[in-house]
Amino acid sequence: AVTPWLRSRSRLVVAGGAKPYHRAHDVLVKVGCAQVLQAKFSYGSVYSELVGEKVEVSVLTDPPHGKWKSLGTVM
Hints:
Elements: H1 8-15, E1 23-24, E2 39-40, E3 42-43, E4 48-49, E5 55-60, E6 68-74
Pfam families: PITM1-3 (PF24695)
């Protein structure tokens, strides 16, 4: 199910035809150590950041042919 935007600004940016430009850092972690994921969710040619919105975080297991696993939803 699609979740509605929490902020009207986000809804307006996306409704205006802004394309997504989401980015994340690749992470290499030694087995048994904690992992930290950093990402930026933005839209449009000026990279308007999503602020105050929920995003679902997923990782690809066993790339490049694995399955996507949801890690949950965060704000």
